[in-house]
Give the backbone structure.
Amino acid sequence: MFRRVGIAVGLGLCAILATPGTTLAFSNNEIHIAVVTDIGGSFSDVAGTGATVAADLAIEDVGGRIGRTPIHLSTVDHRNDPTIAAEAVRTLHAQRPISVIAELGGTDVSLPLQTLADELGIAALHSGSLTSALTGEACSPNAVHWGYDTYSLGSVISSQIFSNSWHLWTILTPEGDVGDGFRDDLTRRIHASGGFVTDVVRYPFGALDLTEALIAAENGEGEAIAVATAGEDLTNMLRQMYERGLNRSDKGVAIINMSVHDVQALGLYVTTGLEFTVPFYWDHDDQTRAFAQRFWNRAGTFPSAVHAAVYSSVRSYLQAADAVRTDNPERVIGRMRETPVNDFFGRGGEIRPDGRLMHPKYRVRVKTARESQGIGDYLDVIEEIPADAAFPPLSQSACPLLG
């Protein structure tokens, strides 16, 4: 399907010049979008420069400007460090006022940046962060959470409790805030589906040798193991599980957060048969394939769910800014919350008062090497999970905006 060409986006240099005319009510007489992402770290494949490509495609699809107001696109490498991320955003904002920050992957980065965005008076579009706190206790009137979170990713467990009768679960997750979020939301999900968490095994984030954690999980009381991590930790974990034969043992294995890029990195022989939940798969239908072709032409690879969410959120933001004729964050985000999202990602989704975009999820299974037709053809979509089943009800939200 795809023909590889060079990347056609310059990081931080996508300024679109306006012709003279009436200036609308925008900061610095422009809309400045800053994609804050992981360029060279463990999440660079699913986010990284591809997030900038996705944002640039969204700008292109609204005509490259709002009225006669130019759109400027910058990229910030947060290096998975909240201090570096905050300093870089502050510096950029002082040099050229930012209207909105986008992508924001990584819990350690996304929560501080949401606070900073409120302080600076700019909007925040979260696509890559997993923490459900963004629409809970840390919610903001100036922010939306477009992608997945730790609760919705656990949808695969609900399906496997019923299809495989795995009722007792061991959760394998890293230490720290990310692991805490996985543990808490997966426990809620498992209990709500009639299961029970017997053990929680923690390991140091970024550890290379995971033998001790894998032995503990294998010896746990659970009938199945919920592998709840991401990025290089996930690929390292699955590779060592495969080497130990754990995925071929009597223990069930559920992968909570995986991407098509992880499958490619590990290979089909390691990942065949694994099931997980995604909000987007490039080969799902004609709409997703059309976006994937455009993305491939720019980036030379297929888009991840994060890339799709960046495109969708940035385009929705720009359409809202066009409608209200300002980049005032409360007015733009307020308009976004009033407007259904009708694209290949949102599919008629709506933004709740806590900032959560409600949209469907998909349970997928990794194909065998024989089934795969080539690069990127790795997944079968086996179930669509409606938004109200994927995400917790609004009544359970801890967002203080709800009163």
Notes: Residues 22 and 68 are 7 Å apart (CA to CA). The first strand starts at residue 14 and ends at 15. The chain has 14 helices and 16 strands.
